Amino acid sequence: xxxxxxxxxxxxxxxxxxxxxxxxxxxxxxxxxxxWQCFRQYAKDIGFIKLD
Length: 52
Known about the structure:
1 helix; zinc ion binding; elongated; ribonucleoprotein; Small ribosomal subunit protein uS14; alpha+beta; single chain; Ribosomal_uS14
C-alpha cells in the first residue's frame, strides 16, 4: 500500500470534479471533468439541452 500523500498519475484518485472535487461518477468525456451531480446542475448553463 503506497503512502497517503502519494500523488496519483492514473486511476480514480487522479481525477476529480472541477466543481465540487468529488471523485465518484465523473464525466471526463468532452473535457467536462465533472461529476454527474454537478453536470445535471450546470448542464443548461454549459449549453446542453434535453432532446427528449
